[in-house]
Specification:
- The protein is α+β, with helices and mostly antiparallel strands.
- It has two domains: 151 residues, Tetratricopeptide repeat domain (Serine Threonine Protein Phosphatase 5, Tetratricopeptide repeat, Alpha Horseshoe), CATH 1.25.40; 299 residues, Porin (Beta Barrel), CATH 2.40.160.
- α1 crosses α2, α2 packs antiparallel against α3 and α4 runs parallel beside α6.
- The longest helix is centred in the first third of the chain and has 20 residues.
- The mean pLDDT is 92.
- It comes from Ruixingdingia sedimenti.
Length: 457
């Protein structure tokens, strides 16, 4: 529907003298007139034009879109949804290429608007993703993405999911050695104590429900669940014949509440996150836990902000008595936004883990650096990270003088935005980790390549 044609049609109608013969309009002119009338705020008259067109052709996709939008403006949301659904089906008859894309985009947008007005915001988000997928050009897609973000902020329910497949060289966090020394004597490690290769499949789902929100604060109730399944490689099964992939399966279920509040007129936000959860390992209960995190974010200057999180956690171990744990941590982060839009984050943290078991109790210090490129590279969103951690354990049977473990990890994350479908794009995450320990049992390394899916808007 081109603007000059619309303006000429409107001028012709306004210039028609009283008592003149009624204008005879072809189907395209009536469609144009219907949208002009709708834009002027006269939804009932626009509906009349649409009904005339539908009498002529009940599968006219443009007329169905016009009728759906008019019904929505008149407050008849269920009728609008039914008409938009018919328009979506009829769009396949509207030709190929850009014409078909334009019709499907218009139908999807009409459906999303009707659903959102009817309070069915989750379904509206699905149709806005369809609109983005079928958008005939970049400008139309940007409109769909903008409307999606608006509906999402209005929706009290937020859902997120994750799906990944990760070939890994060490699915059991095993040692890279085949022997360990005890009082200077070598002892062979069993096959399942050594690193086992295999394939990890991960699935996660989280939901947030907004309990309260105003201009300064918001509170959410959270529920999350995650499952990791493992399939051992042929090499791993030969190395540890008694081991099974299910021995290394991991699951967690967590619920909690989070609160964020802006502090006065200062560019600072206080956050509180409380959670309780249960996890399982190898099909058996591993632990229950309670966690409380207190956070503060503050903008220092334009493009520079600082964040701090003080956390406490209590774990009740269900697998082995005497391994209950108390963890206290402090994490600091400095985020710098560069002139080109790239983001750098420098982090540092300390952790105090207390337990009766000397294999668990330790102190840790960690530092990290993350980089996120603002502009995609040939349609690929890039992020990279590097982190290091030192853990100090007390004396044990294998380390009478105590031990210091050092972990170094590097990661590269790629999101292929040009390959997205309905706003979900494939991802590739590379992770390499090296744990150095004076005790061979804890000295290991792993390399993982994770294939997943991520939302791009």
């Amino acid at each position: 529907m081109r603007l000059p044609r619309i303006l000429a049609l409107a001028a012709l109608l306004l210039a028609a003298p009283a008592g003149a013969e009624p204008l005879r309009l072809d189907a395209q002119a009536m469609r144009d007139l219907g949208f002009v009338t709708l834009a002027a705020g006269d939804a009932p008259r626009a509906m009349d034009y649409a009904q005339v067109l539908l009498t002529r052709d009940p599968r006219d996709p443009v007329a169905l879109i016009l009728a759906a939008r008019a019904a929505r403006d008149m407050g008849d949301y269920r009728r609008a949804e039914a008409l938009a659904r018919r328009a979506w089906a009829a769009a396949d008859d509207g030709g190929e290429g850009p014409a078909r894309a334009q019709l499907r985009y218009g139908a999807a947008m009409a459906m999303a608007q009707a659903l959102a007005s009817d309070g069915r915001r989750m379904a509206a988000q699905v149709w806005l993703r369809r609109a983005a997928q079928t958008a005939p050009d970049a400008r139309a897609r940007a409109v769909a993405e903008r409307d999606f973000r608006y509906v999402r902020t209005r929706n009290p329910l937020s859902l997120q999911f994750s799906l990944s497949l990760t070939p890994s060289s060490n699915v059991n966090n095993g040692s890279r050695h085949d022997t360990v020394e005890i009082f200077g004597l070598p002892f062979a490690l069993s096959g399942d104590a050594q690193a086992l290769s295999g394939l990890e499949a991960g699935l996660g789902l989280s939901a947030r429900w907004r309990l309260a929100q105003d201009g300064r604060a918001e509170t959410h109730l959270r529920l999350a669940a995650a499952q990791r399944l493992v399939r051992l490689s042929d090499k791993a099964r030969a190395q540890a014949p008694a081991a099974r992939g299910r021995d290394y399966a991991y699951a967690v279920l967590e619920t909690g509440i989070s609160h964020r509040r802006r502090l006065g007129d200062a560019p600072a936000v206080f956050s509180l996150d409380a959670a309780m959860g249960h996890n399982r390992y190898g099909g058996r209960a591993l632990s229950d836990y309670l966690r409380l995190d207190l956070g503060l974010e503050r903008v220092l200057t334009r493009g520079l902000s600082v964040e701090a999180v003080l956390g406490g956690q209590r774990q009740w171990r269900r697998d082995t008595p005497g391994r209950d744990t108390d963890v206290l941590s402090l994490d600091l982060g400095l985020v710098r936004r560069l002139a080109n839009g790239d983001a750098l984050r420098l982090s540092a943290g300390v952790r105090d883990t207390r337990a009766l078991s000397r294999d668990i109790a330790h102190d840790a210090v960690a530092v990290g650096l993350e980089w996120r490129r603002a502009a995609p590279v040939m349609g690929v969103r890039v992020a990279a990270s590097l982190s290091a951690e030192t853990r100090r354990f007390g004396p044990t049977l294998l380390a009478p003088l105590g031990r210091d473990d050092r972990r170094l990890e590097a990661g590269l994350s790629l999101t292929f935005e040009r390959l997205d479908y309905m706003g979900f794009a494939p991802t590739l995450d590379l992770r390499a980790q090296r744990m150095r320990s004076p005790v061979a049992l804890h000295d290991g390394q792993s390399l993982g390549v994770a294939f997943g899916i991520r939302s791009v808007f």
